[in-house]
Amino acid sequence: MRALLTRRSLVLAALVMSLALAGMTRATWTTALAAGFTGAKQSVDVTGQDAAPAVLALALVGGAAAVATTLASRWVRFITGPVLILVGIGAAVSSISVRADAVSASTSAVAEATGVVGGSIDAEASIWPLVALVPAVLLVVVGVLVLAVGGRWPRRRSRYQRDASREVAPAQLDPSDDPAAAWDALSRGEDPSDAAAEESSADPAGGRADDPSDEPVDEQVDEQVEHPSDDTWTEPPGDSGRVAE
């Protein structure tokens, strides 16, 4: 059920219903019988475009409203939802009027076909005005659903919106490691080589600090012999007696 209430599903449904409604106007909605110049009866097939021109116009508006529903802002549904509802109601009313009064709906088309204005017309509506009620009613339903569930749709991220998780800190940027990140830093007005230069100047040995333990063992022993500590140095007993003498 949730899959049927997604933005994509409702937009697709609105587009399909609008296209179906527009396509139905190409069918014959009424068949009229009127006298021509010679007085002979002439049969005229009146399409939905001529019998109910408002239906085609409303179908185009419905398609535009469906496309507008794909916009990222959730507030658009407060416009497109009522528009779809009004389109469905208007198309349904126009279809019912053709079914109820086929003569009035056929007058303009018959006058253009026969060239006689104000003549006697006998007209009968086909099944197509009733069939057109189906997409019209469904457009109303789609409009109500857009208003009802449009607030729960996830917001679309613009492709120009910066993603903070993909940003690279200038201190961690190395042009040799990531050329693409270096170009991104240059586009922001930063110099990616500054961070690498600072790191190399601050730690030329690759991050290893000076450690006395790295010196050779022989040199450490020599230093201890040449500079003995006062705490550990003891005078040999034999030397003390010689000094006293």
Account of the protein in words:
The chain has 245 residues and is mainly alpha-helical. Helix content is 55%, strand content 8%. It is built from 11 helices and 3 strands; from the N terminus they run αββααααβαααααα. Strands 2-1-3 form a 3-stranded antiparallel beta sheet. Helix 3 (53-68) packs antiparallel against helix 4 and helix 4 (77-100) crosses helix 5. The longest helix is centred in the middle third of the chain and has 24 residues, at 77-100. The chain is elongated. Mean pLDDT is 76; it is low at 160-165, 167-173, 203-210, 217-234 and 239-245.
Topology:
Blueprint: H1 7-24, E1 28-35, E2 41-47, H2 48-51, H3 53-68, H4 77-100, H5 102-114, E3 121-125, H6 128-131, H7 133-149, H8 179-187, H9 192-202, H10 217-226, H11 237-244
